[in-house]
Amino acid sequence: MAALAGGAALCALAALAIAVVSLMRARRVQRAYAVFSQGRSEDVLTLLRRHIDEVTALRGEVVGIEDRVDGLRRLLSGCVSRVATVRYDAFDEVGGQLSFSSAMIDERGDGVVFTAIHGRNDSRSYAKPIRAGESQFHLSDEERQVLRVALETGPVAPVSSSSQGDAR
Q: Which residue(s) pair with 131 in the sheet?
C-alpha cells in the first residue's frame, strides 16, 4: 500500500510539474496573442486574415514605390551630378586666378564645360558641349583637367587642388 501511495504521490508531482509548464506556455501564447491582436477582441483566424490582407496590400504599395524609384533613377541619370572647377592665371600679366573652367556632367558623361578667360583688357567665355565624356571641340589643358576631375568624382563632391589651379 505504501508503494501505491508513493507512486500516486510521484504521479501527482509529475502532474503538477506538467501543469506548471503548461501554464507557463499558455502565458507565453497569451502574450504573443496580445501582441498579434493589438488589443482587438477577435479570434485568431480573423486576425490572421486581416494581417494577410494588410501584408498583401503593403506588397502592392512596395511594388508601386519600386516603380517610382526606378523612374526617379532614370530621371536623375540625366541631371547634373558631377561638378568641378579649376581656377588659373591664363596670362602672366594677370594674377589672382581670375580665369576658370567648370564642368557640369551627368551620370552618362553628358554635359558642358564652361571657360572664362580674363585678361588685362578683355574677357572671353566659352561653352563646349560634352557627350559621353568627350567633346567635338578642342579642349584646353585646363578644360581637359576639369572634365577628367568631374568624371572621376562621385556625384557633386569636393575635389582636391591640382598643380595648374585650384580644382573644386
A: 134
In terms of residue numbers, what domain contains 33?
29-76
Name the pairing type of β-strands 82-88 and 123-130. unpaired
**Average model confidence (pLDDT) for the chain?**
85
163 and 129 assigned to the same domain = yes
CB-based contact 90:158 (threshold 8 Å)? no
pLDDT band at 163 (very low <50, low <70, confident <90, very high): very low
pLDDT digits (tens, 9 = 90+) for 53-80: 999 999 999 999 999 998 888 888 888 8
The domain tally of the chain equals: 2
Is residue 57 situated within a structural domain?
yes
* Mean predicted confidence (pLDDT) in 126-140: 95
Nearest in space to 128 (alpha carbons), one of 118, 119, 116: 116
Residue 147's contacts (CB-CB under 8 Å, 6 or more residues apart) are 84, 103, 105, 113, 130, 133, 135, 139
